[in-house]
Amino acid sequence: MSSIKSPERIIPPAAKNAVEKNTLYLVGTPIGNLSDISERALKVLSEVDFIAAEDTRSSGILLSHYGIKKPMVSYFEHNKRERGEMIVSRIENGESCALITDAGMPAISDPGEDIVKLCAKKNVRVSVIPGPCAAVSALCVSGLFTAKFVFEGFLPAAKSDRRSVLDSIKDEKRTIILYEAPHKLRRTLDDIYASLGDRKISLCRELTKINEEIIRTSIKGAIDYYAENEPRGEYVLILEGASAEELESRAFWANMSIEEHVEYYISMGQIKNDAIKSAAHDRGVAKSEIYGKIMKK
Question: pTM value?
Fold first, then answer.
């Protein structure tokens, strides 16, 4: 008989907001304005045994601002494998650790993802201290559809891989969130326009900082704007999803008459009634509408 593994249970500490040993804390930190840090985040950073940071220098500024003095270790993309093992080993041996990134939430387009997987593998407790997230903050002020969205993060550096990713989201109806560095922005906008055509876009940079800027325009408008203006700061790009009209124009049946559409499904082996149902589904109309037009012929 095969055994069924019991589901993992994350048990909160007995005392409210107590900082526990043998725990990795994912601590959200400000994306710009230092005042955006939470009281709980400050408590955890003050009480853990040590802090793992993507950049100990930039994180040191935050900690110094709040008078927090804790041993720090670097944990970033190029040392995450060996350093992750070391951090988790220390946690297993009774210490507590807070993981912070340069800004925002660890593990979102961040090597923190890997250490959380390692903790899950080794059954080490992970607790999250929520904080600012650039992606969601930009979505909120984008002026675009927010009920459904997808997060793609940074596009690949290689042109062929970038085009492949963009082609894969071309028909995505939900709002799309991307991250981009200033020196790559112009090329990225060109690639987006080539793959997705012209759509609404919101470009958000330096969120919560003095130079915060939100530009709501079209992709073509953004290309024209940045042809004359130098991109500055890290960007969150909020892209409008594909419209029903856009999807319909690319559909295999776009140039078929209703009769041809139904005949196509019949040629694929469906009976007439099912073919009518399939055509109606493709076109987003009631089956009765297709049936009525077919039966009039």
Answer: 0.81
